[in-house]
Amino acid sequence: MTKPRKARIYFWLLVGGIPLVLGGLVLAFFLMRSGPTDTGPTLFIIQRSKNANEVHYEVQASADGTLAEEPVIAYWVLKAEGGGREDLGWFEKKMAYGFEVMEPDSKGEREMKLVAWEDRTIKLTKNEEGKWRAQTKIDGKEAYLTRLFIQVDESGLTPEVLYIDIFGEEVDGGDPVQEHLVKE
Fold first, then answer.
1. What percent of the chain has pLDDT over 90?
2. 45 and 7 in one domain?
């Protein structure tokens, strides 16, 4: 191969390669921005000490704000594995992260209970901006639940919950509120 021909090949590889690489970077940027954490209105998340993966609870509502027949869905955001999204498994739904949503009340609001946290009711309610929120009592105050963190000891045969930190924002004023629950 002659030198000028080789130079032309390198030139066209360079000219064609740069837009291809830039296009790939732009596509990757937009795919990352529209990843699983931006799929819709997240009510709250559950984080665990085991790894960075999170369970997201997302509200399902129509454009006019009416709750769907299945008003809440839950899924994994696999942050420890690059950020993909995965449905909860059968066992996870039945024993750990599943939930039940009750029928609507006269205002169209619903209550839900997590299978692993049955002693506390979570009310699906709209705030002043018309956004659906998960409302419950946190440290004795009415608050919008934003996050649960579960500290687990996995040194034994089965994982043992050591404590749960509950985070939210007060309904009146939006001040941060937190509660620390220790297993008795």
1. 58
2. no
Residues 25 and 73 in one domain: no
Domain count, the chain: 2
Domain extent at residue 17:
1-34
DSSP string of 98-120, one letter each residue:
-EEEPPP-TTS-EEEEETTEEEE
* pLDDT, tens only, 73-84: 999 999 999 889
- Do 28 and 47 reside in the same domain of the chain? no
**pLDDT at res. 30:** 35
Q: How far apart are CA 102 and CA 67, in angstroms?
A: 12
Residue with tokens 């609507």: 104
| 68 contact partners, CB below 8 Å, separation of at least 6 | 60, 61, 62
Q: Does the predicted model carry a pTM greater than 0.90?
A: no
